[in-house]
Amino acid sequence: MSISNVSSGASALDQYQLDSDRFATGNELGKDQFLQLLVAQMNNQDPLSPQENGEFIAQLAQFSTVEGIDNLNGSMESLLSGYQSSQALQASSMVGRTVIVPTDQAVVDTSAGLEGQLALSSSSSNVFVKVYDESGSLVDTVNLGALEAGMHDFTWDGTDGAGNLMEPGVYTFEAMATINGTNTQMATLLPANVDSVSLGAGSGGEMLLNVAGLGSISLSSVYAIQ
């Protein structure tokens, strides 16, 4: 690389950045080359109009800033890679386990029933959970009575209103609460089995859990692990 022809009108930092663009990654100009360019600029400056010391100091300061940003970017990439590896390890350990997620659907083994939770936004005189099968038909209603605001457990025994055991499958749970005389739907948290894990699209993609009956959900949406 020749450094003898440095324009007196361009700073060493400018020359460094221009030359850097002409080199592929792995063969980039580094600190030594920049300093050589700076010395070459000093040797080739116009003796009738030399640059002030402050100008050279400013160039060095600018170079330090550029180098610091590059180092910071490298550190952030390493940090992100480490975070994703840790997240992948954490997620892979959840395969085969049951997680509690905010949803209104669940795959139910009716012989074992289902235990879920509902989030009651305010006190209610009448709280109940309607259970629907895959066709959308109402099969049972779980009455919980009057409850205070907060998280509450509920259980469905897997039978219909007449006490007949239902077939295993996907069921929908609609939590309702009577508040100020109006029936209002409440959020539910239901169990789901984790079948596998995958990484979301993009370099910063979040780890996804592939759960039975729900498809892919983000790891951050998991409320609890059983």
> SS-based structural class?
alpha+beta
State mean pLDDT (0 to 100 scale): 79
Q: How many domains in all?
A: 2
* Text of the CATH class of the largest domain: Mainly Beta
Q: According to CATH, what is the topology of the largest domain?
A: Immunoglobulin-like
Unreliable stretches covering 5 or more consecutive residues: 1-9, 22-26
Please tally the β strands and state the result.
11
Helix content: 25-40%
Largest sheet: 11 strands, antiparallel
In N-to-C order, the SSE pattern is HHHEEEEEEEEEEE
How many DSSP helices?
Answer: 3
Indicate the overall shape.
elongated
Q: How far from one another are the termini? A: 63 Å
Rg, rounded, reads: 32 Å
- Give the strand content: 35-45%
What does this protein structure show overall?
It is a single chain. This protein is an alpha+beta fold. The protein folds into 2 domains: 12-92; 98-191, Immunoglobulin-like (Sandwich), CATH 2.60.40.4070. 28% of the residues lie in helices and 36% in strands. It contains 3 helices and 11 strands. Strands 1, 2, 3, 4, 5, 6, 7, 8, 9, 10 and 11 form an 11-stranded antiparallel beta sheet that branches. A hairpin with a 7-residue loop joins strand 8 (182-199) and strand 9 (207-211). Helix 1 (12-21) packs across helix 2. The protein is elongated and about 105 Å long. It starts with 11 loop residues before the first helix and ends with a strand. Residues 1-9 and 22-26 have low confidence and may be disordered. Residues 86-222 form the FlgD Tudor-like domain. Belongs to the FlgD family. It comes from Halopseudomonas aestusnigri.
